[in-house]
Amino acid sequence: MPNRDSILFLLLVLLLVAGPGRATAVPMSHGFTYQGQLHQSGVPFEGTVTLRFTLWDAAGTGTPPTGGAQVGDTQTLTNVAVTGGVFSVVLNAGDQFSNAAFDGQARWLQVAVCADSTCASATVLGPRQLLTGAPYALGPWQLVGANINYTQGNVGIGTRAPTLPLHVKGTGELARVEGASSGAGNVAYVGFGKPGGTLSGYVGDASASDDDTYLGSQANNVNIYAGGFVMSAQTSGNVGIGTYSPASKLEVRGDVRLGTFGEYFATSSGENLRIVRGEVLASGAISSGSGFTVSHTSTGIYHLVLTTPFSGTSHPTASITPVAASGQLIAMLSALPGTSLVTLRIVNLTGTAVDAPFSFIVMGNR
C-alpha cells in the first residue's frame, strides 16, 4: 500500500455535466468525478486500492486534518484501479454526502488510503482539498440548500430569446398551479408580494373551505383593466364601474341596461330616489308589492304605512288608481303624504265613499 509520506496528491474535481447529443429522460445525479494521483517512493503507483472519502465544511488544521463538521456520510470505494499513478472515481452518485451537500457553501474533500478492503486501518491524506466547480459546469444556477436560484438574466421556457424574467411560450395551457388536496379543501393560488415577502394580492383558490376562485388584495383596492380601466373594488366594500372612487356600494358611470337582451334602460335621476308600489284589494289585503302595510279603518279610507320612511326633507309623491268592477270611481289623497304614511279615500261619482281595489306608486327621496 502506498504510504502517506511518499504520496504526491493531485486533485481535479469535475462536475458531471450532460455532454452533446440527444437528451434523455434520465435525471442528472448529484455525483461528480474525482481524479487524483498516487505515488509511492516517488514512483507512480500501479494496482488497486481501497479509498475512503469524507466531505467537510472546513479545511481543518494539522496532519491529518482535524476540525470542522463532516457533511453527510462516509463513502468507501474498494478495488479502485490506479494506472500510472492516476485514478478516477465517481463520488456522491448515491447522495452519500446527501442531496443538499452542495448548497453554495464551501466544501473540502478528505481522502484516506485504506490498508485493506475493510478499511479498518487507513492513512488520512492531508490537507483536505477544496472543491471548486469546473468553469461553466455549475452554469448560472446556484444551489442554496434545497433551493435553486438564477439572477443573471431572463429564463425562457419554449423560447431561446426570453424578454422577461420568466418567459413561457407555447400553445394551450402554458402553466398550472395545482394544490395537494381535492374538493373544497384544496388551496392553489398565485401570490404577488412586496420586498421582504409581504403578500399584496393573489389570484386563485386561496380558501380551504370552498372551490371558489379569488382575485384578492391583502390591504388595498382591486382594480380591473381591459384595454383601459373597467372597475374597482374598494376596501370599504364599495364597487365602482367606470370610477376609481365609488361613494356607494355600487356606483356606475354610464348607462345601465336590463332585460334578457339589454332592452331596458335603468331609470335614473339627479336625486337619490326610492319607489314603493303595490296593489290592494277592497278589503285592505295586499295583492302584490312589498315595503308597506295597509290599514282599512272605514269605508273608502285606506292608510298605507311605509316600512322604511322616506327622507324627512321633502314629501313623497303618490299616485293612486282605483279599479272598479262597474261604474266610475275617484281616488284621492285625504292628506299630504308623510314620510311613512299615505292616507287615501275612494268615492264614486256622487261623492259617496266606497271600498274598492286600487294600485299605487309612492316615490320620494331615500
Radius of gyration: 43 Å
Largest beta-sheet characterization: 5 strands, antiparallel
- What distance separates the N and C termini? 102 Å
What's the domain count?
Answer: 3
Q: Quick one: overall form? A: rod-shaped
Task: Report mean pLDDT, rounded to a whole number.
Answer: 85
Strand content: 35-45%
Structural class: mainly beta
Q: What count of helical segments does DSSP give?
A: 0
**Record field, number of beta strands:** 31
Summed up, what is this model?
The chain is mostly beta strands. Helices cover 0% and strands 42% of the residues. It has 3 domains: 4-130, Immunoglobulin-like, CATH 2.60.40; 217-268, no CATH class; 273-365, Immunoglobulin-like (Sandwich), CATH 2.60.40.
Describe this structure in words.
The chain has 366 residues and is mainly β. It has three domains: 4-130, Sandwich (Immunoglobulin-like); 217-268, no CATH class; 273-365, Immunoglobulin-like (Sandwich), CATH 2.60.40. Helix content is 0%, strand content 42%. The chain is built from no helices and 31 strands. The radius of gyration is 43 Å and the shape is rod-shaped. The termini are far apart.
